[in-house]
Amino acid sequence: MASPPVSEEPVTAVVVPIRSFEGALSRLEHVLGRSGCRDLMRRMAGRVVAAADGLPVHVATDDAEVAAWATNLGADVVAVGRPGLNIAVSVAVDRLAAAGVERAVVAHADLALARTLRPAAGPGLVIVPDGRRDGSNVVCVPTGCGFRFAYGPGSFARHVAEAERLQLSVTVVQDDDLAYDIDHPEDLLALPAQDRLALGVDSLAVSP
Length: 208
What we know:
By secondary structure, the chain is of the alpha/beta class.
């Protein structure tokens, strides 16, 4: 009796766009200082890369420091050549498609509680919104479908609308860890103690 066919998972990779560590998290500069913001961004981005959980990682950047950092972590670097988050993600996803990757999981670099991106890998559009259900912290799309990324305020609704335009199924993943990003000083204070310690902000006393 013939064995049933084995279904293979689509080839999936992670994209992490990082413009630069320098000047990152500017809304926290008054409490962390410029170098503190830079160090925190590096640590959070490192967590996101580790959260790929075995999936290959591609860091989209034109910054030499970020590129060297990504290479040191074993990630591939995608040189973008033009400014803008939407352009960076689109260029990276197109490169993955040309390389035979079928699905791209795009994750922001400031996900302080990221443990694994695996829940966001799936068919159609899989999207993890932020805690306000406004932004798109993690997005997974088929690489060859012509998805038009539209990051910025209100991106969650725009990305869902784009999936509907392309007739992609939509799965919204509610994941407290992946939904948590760092925008304001109080976001740091709300982190669990062990995560504040790991991110180097355990001694921070914030007066918003």
